[in-house]
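Reply to dn_fold:

You asked what the input looked like. This is it:
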Amino acid sequence: MYTLTIAVRSLGRNKRRMVITTLATALAGWIMLVYSALLDGMVRTMERTVVSLELGDLQIHAEGYRRDPDLYLRISRGEELADELSKRGLLSAPRLYTFALAASGVSSAGAELRGIDVEREARVSEIHKHVRHGSWLDTTDPRGIVLGAKLARSMNAKVGSEVVLLGQAADGSMANDLYQVRGVLKTISERADRSGLFLTEAAFRELMVLPEGHHELALARGKHDLNAAKSIASSEAKGAEVMTWRELQPAVAQMLDSSVAGRFILMFIMYGAISMVILNATLMSVFERIREFGVMKAIGVTPFQVGFVIFLEVMLQALAASAIALATGLPLAFYLQRHGWNLSSFAGDMSFAGIAMEPIWYAQVSVAGVATAIGALFAIVALASLYPGIKAAIIRPLEAIYHR
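and this is what came back:
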């Protein structure tokens, strides 16, 4: 209690320096608090976007299909496998793929046809929520199709336009039929935008004369973590290829992982600069009070107690700075978590590794993020107090008393 009283009184010796140091420390804490929330929000949003728009948490394919997509290379028991996975907590969306020529009016383009189980797809992905014009697929409208944004532009097609599909069916016959555009998607991904043409599974099978099997099962992991979900899927889909979204999109996964290192690098730079300010200010305070420390040691105050006084002074400033950072940073972080930071005015359509990103940047406030920012602040401030504290502790009483 005695050392705490001395530390509190000593802080008032030079109020201007104390206020400047505390506010500088608070600014660093505020920046790291808001930055950590924005970074966590970006990581969470990117992962959710990658998973929810197209990929799913995991995907199952027949062995070799991803290397060489082939209409005939299918998972033979897709429906049965989907039911088995559902019993173990993994929702699945079976999908069918092939390529065909799509024509509307006098314009034509190559298209990747995607046969979708409308009901199951809605449980795994959110692509049905990203229709810009018109509406999503409906099983009651087997001739209705949905186009990717760039594909629709290249064919000058819009909602209500008629589209002719021409390709080769699984039995070797000519696949040829007329469809009507129900909807046009927002920007989803480079692949879906440029060539994506979505139709119901039943319409796909009829067009391509494909009675059974699926090319892909997209899975939602539910309550399982990613590794556990992959283990379950692998045990059920023996002989098939099971991959997580991290394996399917390694560039995105690596970027998200490296963001953690980026956070600590910025924290090290920011707090390192503040530690120099604190170190310099505290050393100035020690040199101004050399005679005082000499008298304290002469009357029996131990070197540890002298050094502890310096430590308490610095930590009290850190406590005040943290309180200011929390009081000003958390409201902003919570506001950004709820409303986001709209970047559309100068960023436009954003994408990373071919995956479309929403132009609104949301923060994500977490106990771990706040604790890391504030805990690191206290740690670096404590380190900055060591040298001035040792300097004060080793002062010789006689030399200090006669110091000028």
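Residues 58-220 form one domain.
Hope that clears it up.
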